[in-house]
Amino acid sequence: MYSSTQERASDTLELITKQPYQRLKGLKEWNFGVFEGQPEFLNPHNQPGRNSYGDFFVQFQGESDYQVQDRMNKTLTEIMEQIKSNQNVLAVSHGGAIYAFLLKWLDIEVIREKVSLHNCAIVKLTFDDGKFNFEEVIQNN
Question: What highest taxon heads this organism's lineage (predicted)?
Answer without folding.
Answer: Bacteria
